[in-house]
Specification:
12 helices, alpha/beta, 20 strands, globular, Archaeosine Trna-guanine Transglycosylase, Chain: A, domain 4, 30% strand, 6-stranded mixed beta sheet, Rossmann fold, Transcription Regulator spoIIAA, 7-stranded mixed beta sheet
């Protein structure tokens, strides 16, 4: 068994159960991409078993901290069964669910979502790439499904020295699917959609948005970065009279239109679909004197790491400032950041600064996060990537 030995004082995070070992923490040792290595403290004491990635700054991702545990096919079966059993216990209100959430489930780099009778998976790190075939077979055996689509086409694979890859890993057939989420029917495509096909992390936030739109009597709703219209359908379900969906992707807006129709609403009478840059749209809306009762801001990742936080902070502040100026007194803003480089406290400060610049104050009525099938563990706070605020503008 190959091993790596850490520099003196670099073992503390592993002793606390954190699964990452950075390149600069390693004194000596190595291995082939994805190979399991023994992780040792500077004095040779066992710390864990991990998968090595010679191309990545995160040089090793820990599988286990138990010296007696073997990293073999049975190990992955145990981890997969544990992750899938947790989702069954949660009683999620959807047949679209995240079954495996990387480090949180003890499987760094592996993402698996279920969309009805189809699994969609991402193998994003060298370790799970090495065990890809075994994991695929076990996923189908555990779930009883026959179709698994692979979406290992994320740019993060390049950091691992891995080429992008997508296509059917098991089974075949249509990639356009429909799932039920709370009381909404939503279409997606596992081959063409973002991530594994859809954003399941916002499931409960979409449902909560529908509730708040109804409770607050919001009629004019603006959904920015609308993608395929999940928040737009939620607004209509909540009784909104008209919803404007803004996105820079024409195909995504067409899917949003289909989702509106799929749920029984007249897309021509109740919706506007704007193929536009959100920042530019907000500025033009302000010039026109448009006003809204509720606005959703769910932008893409502005800060993939802390190094991008300053630039991302300015971008978040700008769109939130514009949105707050467009809201009627008593109006609702649901605003999000999915940037790992922007923590919850910083995001709150950014939105507070946006309110100050807009001359608007508001009540923070809820803090929002990812749906519970996207868990964060106590030992891996970096997993808490999605954070949101629900704000009612003070009259």
């Amino acid at each position: 068994m190959k091993s790596i030995r850490l520099r003196d004082g670099k073992e503390r995070s592993l002793l606390r159960g954190h699964p990452w070992v950075f390149q600069g923490s390693i004194a000596k040792g190595g291995g082939d991409a994805g190979e399991t290595v023994r992780i040792e403290a500077h004095d040779g004491k066992f710390l864990g078993w991990g998968a090595i990635s010679p191309s990545s700054q995160i040089r090793v991702r820990a599988w286990s901290f138990d010296e007696a545990e073997r990293i073999d096919e049975a190990f992955f079966e145990r981890r997969l069964r544990r992750a899938i059993a947790l989702r069954a216990r949660l009683g999620l209100a959807s047949d679209g669910q995240r079954l495996v959430h990387g480090e949180a489930d003890g499987l760094p780099g592996l993402i698996v979502d279920r969309y009805g009778d189809t699994l969609s998976a991402q193998f994003l790190a060298a370790g799970v790439e090495r065990w890809r075939e075994a994991i695929a077979s076990q996923l189908l055996a555990i779930t009883g499904l026959q179709r698994l689509y692979e979406r290992s086409d994320s740019g993060v694979r390049g950091l691992e020295g891995l080429e992008p890859r997508s296509g059917w890993l098991r089974g075949d057939g249509a990639t356009a699917l429909t799932i039920t989420e709370h009381d909404m029917a939503l279409g997606l495509d596992v081959a063409l959609g973002h991530k594994t096909g859809y954003y399941l992390d916002q499931r409960d936030n979409r449902h909560r948005f529908a509730q708040l739109v109804r409770q607050l009597g919001c009629q004019r709703v603006l959904n920015c970065y609308s993608y395929t219209g999940g928040f737009s359908v939620a607004a209509l379900k909540g009784g909104a009279g008209h919803v404007t969906s803004v996105d820079s992707s024409g195909p995504a807006l067409e899917q949003a239109r289909e989702n509106v129709r799929r749920n029984g609403f007249d897309d021509a009478a109740s919706c506007t679909f704007a193929d536009a840059d959100v920042n530019g749209f907000l500025r033009e809306a302000l010039k026109r004197g448009d006003r809204y009762d509720a606005i959703v801001l769910d932008p893409p990742k502005f800060a993939p790491s802390a190094a991008h936080a300053d630039r991302a902070s300015r971008a978040y502040k700008d769109i939130n400032r514009l949105a707050l100026k467009l809201l009627e007194p008593g109006g609702l803003l649901m605003t999000y950041s999915c940037s790992g480089g922007i923590g919850a406290e910083l995001f709150h400060k950014i939105v507070a600064g946006a309110g100050h610049d807009a001359g608007v104050d508001g009540y923070l009525v809820e803090r929002l996060e990812a749906s519970p099938d996207h868990p964060t563990t106590l030992c891996f706070p970096e997993g808490e990537y999605l954070k949101g605020l629900a704000i009612i503008v003070r009259a």
